[in-house]
Design brief:
Structural class: alpha/beta
Helix content: 40-55%
Oligomer: single chain
Distance between the termini: 22 Å
Strand order of the largest sheet: 3-4-5-6-7-8-9-10
């Protein structure tokens, strides 16, 4: 089943959530290779003075990436957000996504991210400015938000109608309030209410960790797609598992250990190429840790791996670990349920 955003036809209804420090170009490309139909970039600031920084330039790197290229922007000033829209479009963005879902304190304290839901006039002003800035380029605007600021202020349905009227062409709703962060459980009644209130595609997000959960959330909400974040960390093949289950009602066998070895090593090579030796070996540690966290001797290996400060040595260590694993088992263990997920607010703004 395909989905249309503006002139872009998405391959399927399984999306990668934008996650700061995670969904860089190598990770997005890996998830697309393994069955995701769409991936949104890490959040790019609307603050012009930061556009020239190494962090922002890496986040805006789309070399070799399959389209459509979707870039998420964040900020609190309508004019700055409009300027950021044009800046990113001129550098390859084919879809602009507005961040109103990030609950991280360092973002919300500046009244960006999900804090904007607390100021409805400002939120609408920003959306209208971004839509107007993107319109001459025929670039669609999408938006990711939460159910509301707090338990007593769930205003996602009202805002969804306003955003649709302003020209937003797809809405993603994470089933928690800003107040919840990533605690507790996502609820899907509000997402269903948003879907019933608007005509544009609606994407359900939050706690989607298995093929069965994806099926159940789609059924409960009527959503057009699901967005997956934390569950893809160390398990990017979750997208093809869900796709197979939705298509056939049967489970795909876990991947072969030798395949995962190849995927991870290829991912690391691309990661090092983007970040360089010093940053690459350090920022790769979290990805490696996610892969091995539930595997035999995984914690011990992660402890040793975190002391390595050379990319080539890190690559060899990972290869050796998975060679040893392949001697013990042909396939990766069957996935354990969602309690493995950790809510790393700092490292995962807009994480599922």
């Amino acid at each position: 089943m395909t989905l249309q955003i503006g002139t872009h036809t998405l391959e399927n209804r399984l999306f990668v959530a934008p996650m700061a420090g995670v969904t860089d170009r190598p990770f997005r490309m890996l998830c697309r290779e393994l069955g995701a139909g769409y991936a949104v970039s890490e959040m790019v600031t609307s603050r012009k003075e930061l556009w020239g920084t190494l962090k922002t330039s890496r986040r805006a790197n789309h070399d070799g990436e399959l389209g459509p290229i979707a870039v998420q922007i964040a900020g609190t000033d309508a004019a700055m957000m409009a300027e950021a829209t044009v800046y990113n479009i001129e550098r390859g963005a084919q879809i602009i996504d507005i961040n109103m879902g990030c609950p991280a304190k360092k973002v919300c304290n500046k009244w960006a991210g999900s804090a904007l839901m607390r100021d409805e006039p400002l939120a609408l002003e920003i959306v209208q400015a971004v839509v107007d800035a993107a319109q001459p380029y025929n670039v669609p605007v999408t938006l990711k938000m939460r159910t509301g600021w707090s338990e007593d202020n769930r205003n996602a349905v009202k805002l969804a109608r306003d955003f649709e009227s302003a020209g937003v062409q797809m809405l993603t709703v994470h089933g928690r309030t800003r107040e919840q962060g990533y605690k507790g459980h996502a609820e899907y009644d509000t997402i269903a209410a948003v879907k019933a209130a608007v005509r544009v595609p609606v994407v359900a997000n939050g706690d989607i960790t298995s093929p069965e959960k994806a099926r159940d959330v789609l059924a409960a909400t009527g959503a057009d797609a699901v967005m997956i974040g934390r569950a893809a960390q160390g398990r990017p093949w979750i997208f093809r598992e869900i796709s197979h289950f939705l298509d056939t009602g049967t489970y795909l066998a876990p991947p072969l250990v030798v395949e995962v070895r190849r995927l991870l090593l290829d991912h690391l090579v691309e990661h090092y190429a983007l970040y360089g030796e010093f940053s690459g070996v350090r920022t790769a540690r979290k990805h490696i840790g996610w892969y091995v966290r539930t595997l035999p001797d995984g914690e011990a290996f992660r402890g040793r791996m975190n002391t390595i400060e050379d990319c080539a040595e890190q690559l060899r260590a990972v290869g050796d670990y998975f060679d040893g694993l392949a001697d013990r088992m042909d396939r990766m263990p069957a996935h354990q349920a969602a309690e493995e997920l950790s809510g790393e607010e700092e490292a995962a703004c807009a994480v599922d």
